[in-house]
Amino acid sequence: MRSLVGDLLQLRLDAQSDGKLHKKLYNTIRHSILEGSLPPQSRLPPSRDLATELHLSRNTVLRVYEQLLAEGYIVSRTGSGTFVAQTVPDSLLSAPLSPVENAAGELSSHLSNRGQALLQRSSASPRQWGAFLPGVPDVNAFPHALFRKIQSRVSRKPQASQLSYSDAGGSQALQLALVDYLRVARSVKCSAGQILITEGIHQAIDLVSRMLCNPGDKAWIEEPAYWGIRNVLTMNGVNLEPVDVDLAGINPPDTGDGAPKLIFVTPSHQYPLGCVMSLERRQRLLALARQTGSWIVEDDYDSEFRFSGQPIPALQGLVDDAPVIYTGTFSKTLYPGLRLGYLVLPRPLMQALKTAHAELYRGGRLVDQEALALFISEGHYTAHIRRMRLLYARRRARLAGLIVAALGKEALSEFNDNAGLHLVLSLPEHCNDAVLASQANQRGILVRALSRYYSGAHPLKGLLLGFAAMEEETMESAFKVLLECIRENS
Amino acid sequence: MRSLVGDLLQLRLDAQSDGKLHKKLYNTIRHSILEGSLPPQSRLPPSRDLATELHLSRNTVLRVYEQLLAEGYIVSRTGSGTFVAQTVPDSLLSAPLSPVENAAGELSSHLSNRGQALLQRSSASPRQWGAFLPGVPDVNAFPHALFRKIQSRVSRKPQASQLSYSDAGGSQALQLALVDYLRVARSVKCSAGQILITEGIHQAIDLVSRMLCNPGDKAWIEEPAYWGIRNVLTMNGVNLEPVDVDLAGINPPDTGDGAPKLIFVTPSHQYPLGCVMSLERRQRLLALARQTGSWIVEDDYDSEFRFSGQPIPALQGLVDDAPVIYTGTFSKTLYPGLRLGYLVLPRPLMQALKTAHAELYRGGRLVDQEALALFISEGHYTAHIRRMRLLYARRRARLAGLIVAALGKEALSEFNDNAGLHLVLSLPEHCNDAVLASQANQRGILVRALSRYYSGAHPLKGLLLGFAAMEEETMESAFKVLLECIRENS
Q1: For A4-92, which CATH class?
Q2: In 3-state terms, what secondary structure has residue A159?
Q3: Residues within 8 A of B (CB atoms), A 325-354 only
Q4: Distance from A203 to chain B by nearest Cα, in Å?
Q5: Strand, coil or helix: what is A220?
Q6: ipTM confidence score
Q7: Distances (CA, A) of A177 to A109, A184, A221, A355, B147
């Protein structure tokens, strides 16, 4: 059924002959507010409903609402909806277009559709260091002085070729060091030639998806999944199909019908939920990929940090010549700002993807890579990981204790495995975790809402709490503030 | 501390149920070598260390090493240790199909169309350092010791936030340093907020083209142009329209009909020909862009190196609020492997493109950026450029002298301006410069064929000769080899 407001807006929309839809809708609502046909404090329909009523995409409506919100025409009240602002400043009634409005209006005319879509789902936190920020290790615990000494050793007499652009693939010393490390620590089977050094996982996924997918090709991603993968894949025109995750990881269908080109998984430690993919699922997934010719992209972002039981070997090494593209990063084991990661490429792809990498990104930073190779081969890397594993295990236990003490056992999501750099705090289904997270953020507590990691409907509600970078003392006081936010919202 | 090799061997030793210790160890190492998990040239731990790690007597380890040595599996190098032999006969006998062989047939069925297209026009040189390689500065002349000191100062007490992911835009200190530098050196008008630090020009163009162009949108590029721009734009689905360059630079049409979304130019020093865009052309281009809503992307890659006359101010600063996206790099002024560059964004775009950068690439490396900011603000950057300008001017004169002495004045392309890091040696129209360049490359002379920089038919023929990284003595002998190649081809 169409609402009254919907009727009004439809009439006026129809009266506007041309222009882009979002611009027309924006003008219509703004005009209706200014001339009083949408009086102060009147309720606007939920974006989803209005979209259905007006036969527009929900994104169009959301975008218009956001712009009106930013300009003060409407306000949003948690849990009750969107309303016309009580007082629309007089200035708006008489003023010519403000420069901000101007910019906002013009901006969308400049940006590409893929650009606008990216900004609408933009997810990177505006702050990259602070209480409970997930995904960040304790960068202060890194042995900076030691690493600087190694860097100095390497860069004292750098070879000219180390200072130029990189050959395809990156530093051979780092490739060799990684072969050894990955074999022992992750049961990854590869030769140095299969390793391609990247700037991190974003670049790795960008390369793989552009080189293997045509626009319109399909990729499975876990539901929920890391927002960065969604951004990169969507930007490259790849169609995402979310596949639900349960306690045993992603649950692939039994038949290969409609199999995708790429299957993105985090088998060792599902991001963000935290569960481990079972052996049965791994074998089924490998069998499916072999049968359909799909490539599995295994993102092994933080598997080094497992605090009890055996380390979980990588999917890549489970069978010989697995149809798996393995990607790892030093962002979690060392520090994110280093911006180094790697791909382990299946033999049939290795030369093509290395060449493409040099063409698209022009590598370099061979001195940094040589230093890192020494850091690994001299044993400092595994030693650092061992130290961090102990430290993070303590911090995780402390945070889990705080959560259980304050909110009961059920607040610790059953998905949480004893691993990683963050915990998921479960919230009741009716709770708006996005609003809660945004309120906490304003108070300096950089938790993230679990629902934000879902593509589709029916997300689990919760908060991601990073514990790795938090000293135990500050953890307690920060958790108190978070608790206040939670209680205000329940 | 246990070595990685030690870890591997321990795992495998444990897996063998019975047999004498030395036999088990022999089998384990031999098997690891044969199946490649101990690859050729990888280092084995000293016998004493391995004995300790594996809780064996040193004699057992020594005996096994001696046997493997006798059988040719490992080699011993005095003073450096024991290594897996480079060629192990057994492994060759049992090896599966070589990856190359395997790859050839299957590869195209895996790759996307855009991926195959990229590989077909792949252009990055397989070697990134050597005689006459264009586009590379003298990386040995960079004050490495000084820069290392500055880096140490910054990284002695790094703030945690400098080690995490970057905020949108990069280090503020570097943005501020660049505002000053660009104003004075390049007449660029901007505020710090307009500057976005990138990994280099490839990333800058990738970001701009994805955010501003829909697939199928049009961009003008200069004919000829840098191959990297073509690769990135084509990968992003942008349709390229080459616009011919004459001695006054790109010649834009007089009407705005069919104007593109983006116009890529190198006004200060056309790449690769070397000419400068005239003021009349600049004004026409700016007027056209204003009229049609196109954005001009000004790639100012090496304009610092101009050896006579006044420096040529950037297009960006010619008028206020120019519709220009300016991009620069430290690859030519410092060294390519540093992988840092920047965009100066027009105000309407700056927030959107910074947000998009954080979403797509996740920046970092703030410590490197802070160090570079100090390097600039303390005056070392302009001092280094001044020194290099004198050095490159000498080298350019020497190379020009060699060319004219051997091949006459007409061999120096009329496009060459007294600037930059390379010269264009003109060849007769009938000459196949690609074949010539490939023959020279095989003899270690890394010149590049001018025709390779053209999209369309009727290219000028010639060779790009980088002179910046060549000492004058080696230049002469390398040029002799090149001359032989030229004479064999004419």
Answers
A1: mainly alpha
A2: coil
A3: 331, 335-339, 347-352
A4: 7
A5: strand
A6: 0.81
A7: 49, 11, 30, 22, 27
Q: Determine the pLDDT at residue B18.
A: 64
Chain B interface includes A146 (CB < 8 A) = no
CB of B146 within 8 Å of a chain A CB? The answer is: no
Q: For every residue of B86-97, which 3-state class applies, written as one string?
A: CCCHHHHHHCCC
Interface of A with B in 54-93 (CB under 8 A): none
Residues of chain A with CATH 3.40.640.10: 160-378
Calculate Rg over the CA atoms of chain A: 25
Is the confidence at residue A446, as pLDDT, over 60? yes
Give residue-wise pLDDT tens across range A257-305.
Answer: 889 999 999 999 999 999 999 989 999 999 999 999 999 999 999 999 9
CA B309 – CA B181 distance, rounded (Å) = 20
Whether the pLDDT of residue A457 is over 60: the answer is yes
**Helices A366-377 and A144-156: crossing angle, nearest 10°?**
120
Backbone φ and ψ for B49, nearest 5 degrees, come out as -65, -45
Angle between helices A472-488 and A433-442 (to 10 degrees): 130
Q: CA gyration radius for chain B?
A: 28
Do strands B43-44 and B81-84 pair parallel, antiparallel, or not at all (unpaired)?
antiparallel
Q: Looking at per-residue confidence, does B363 or A21 come out higher?
A: B363
Instruction: Give B172's pLDDT tier (boundaries 50, 70, 90).
Output: very high
Amino acid of residue B164: S
Whole-angstrom distance, CA of residue A38 vs CA of residue B300: 52
| Nearest-CA distance A114 → chain B (Å) | 7
In chain B, CATH 1.10.10.10 sits at 4-92
Q: What is the mean pLDDT of residues B271-290?
A: 93
- Residue B409 pLDDT exceeds 60: yes
DSSP SS3 for A76: strand
Average pLDDT over residues A56-83: 80
Mean pLDDT, residues B402-406: 97
For residues A370 and B201, what is the distance between their CA atoms, to the nearest angstrom?
24
Residue B36 touches chain A, beta carbons under 8 Å: yes
Residue range B160-378 in CATH 3.40.640.10: yes
Indicate the residue of A119, A336, A348 with minimum beta-carbon distance to B102. A348
User: Boundaries of CATH 3.90.1150.10 in chain A?
Assistant: 383-488
* Residue (of B464, B462, B483, B481) closest to B132 by Cα position: B464
**Contact with chain B for residue A262, Cβ under 8 A:** no
Q: Locate the chain A residue with the closest alpha carbon to B145.
A: A156
Nearest CA in chain B to A226: B359
Q: What is the pLDDT of residue A489?
A: 84
| A200 touches B at CB < 8 Å | yes
Write down how long chain A is.
490
A58 residue type, one letter: R
Q: Residues B393, B396, B400, B406: what is their CA dihedral angle, to the nearest 10 degrees? A: 130
pLDDT > 50? residue A103: no
User: What is the Cα A333 distance to its own chain's centre?
Assistant: 18
* pLDDT more than 70, % of chain B: 92
Higher pLDDT, B84 or A146: A146
The DSSP H or E segment spanning A285 is: helix A279-292
Tell me whether residue B453 is exposed, middle or buried, using C-beta atoms within 10 angstroms of its C-beta: 0 to 12, 13 to 18, 19 or more: buried
pTM for the structure as a whole: 0.80
Would you state the pLDDT for residue B124?
A: 85
Per DSSP bridges, beta strands B249-250 and B462-466 are unpaired
CATH architecture entry for A383-488: Alpha-Beta Complex (3.90)
